[in-house]
Amino acid sequence: MTRAQFKDLFDNHFDSVRNYIYYRSGRDINIKYSAKIRDRDLFYISLYAGNDRFSYSIEEPVDNVVITKKTQEDNTQSGGAIFYGKTWKNGYSTNFSLNYSVLKSDFSDDLTVERILIQQIDQVKNMDARNIIREKTFQVDNRFPVHHSHILEGGMVYKYNQVELAEDTFNIVQAGISGEARRLTLFFQDNIALSKRVDFKAGFRITHAINLKKLYLEPRFSVSVKAGESWKINAAWGIYDQFITKSSVLDDLGNYRYIWTVCDNESIPVLLANHFVLGTSYFHNDFTVSLEGYFKNVTGLTRYVKNAHLGIEGIYEGKGRSYGIDVMIKKDYRGHSAWVAYSLSRTKELFEYFKNDAYRRAPQDQRHELKLATLVNLDPFYISADYVFGSGFPSSPSLLSEEQDNLTYSRLDLAFIYKFLDRKLKSEIGLSVLNVLNTQNIKYANFERIATNQTNYINIYSESIPLTPALYLKLAL
Asked: Which fold has domain 73-100+117-444+461-476?
């Protein structure tokens, strides 16, 4: 991040940050054991653990004050899965799976303002927060081939979630929240080939939210039509419910923070989304083109807002809608691949505290995104590269009005892989370099505004991924 970038991004009454220290690290490990039983049944155990640490510190003189800020976020995720798949006669199959995962997020934020003229130091913010979400899942699903053109699928899922939130400011407990969500889901899907050119899927999920004592029905339909030897047209519609949500918290200056919460249908409603998708694809001689349009509307969004100046405080309910077009062109040639993808989208939201009953840009709204990627196969060496450019998210959130500033996102990643094989061991070793050009790559959750006095602010942002080399090793016995 440079001073010139800030000068280009913000008006004169905003100050840039010079003394800025950024740090990010991450590591993960994945272990999996799998075996075939009687050459038909499959069994595996999979374990995962990962950690991501992000921090930055600022010490900046602005308008006769010195601002010192230290922020750190630690995310640790771990989990495991046990799977057994049984194949019966006549192609029938039954799968059993047991999964457990936990995500722990620790966040600390310390901000002091030193007023040089009066030699006074004010500690504006001193916050520590921990948010934990756990999930346990047991699932049984079955597949019944009735006919070569007719397959029935069905099963059940039991899911248990637990969420904890602990937050204190200046060592005074501000929040201590815990919640649980249990639900049992029965699902069914009928796959029918109506003709050689038309495939139809109809299904539904019935979920009993045990803690809410309520049933939820989620019907889903899709149809695929072969318009020729190479053309296919797809359409789908479905209803989706979500019983755990990531709620947003908005402060006086328009800064967002996100926390996991349990939907209780009182202060936090269950999320309900309708998805509509229509697309077409073309495939011929290893050349693929796909075009897909979508429309999604969501109800049950929640946001906690606290603004003393405007007299707004409380948990507000909202709704959103998202629509756009995705295009992809891909070519495979003698083991090599190259593709380009483009997305044109719009995401808007409407909350109860808005001044007028009109939708405005959501924090995650980005109009354009372009992706380029290639894979060069020099077996046993492989080289891959991908480049992403996004037109940017709203950079200056306002409590009551829509802002139009954008912070663009761009990134070039490279990876070098070597595969070495023998009779017993299959291995890969690789080096990847993220953000090779060290370009600006800002996400909506990485922007923050700090007040220097009653009228002036500084705006800071932290890059999602700076220039980052990474090594990985994969072993398979």
From this structure: Maltoporin; Chain A (2.40.170)
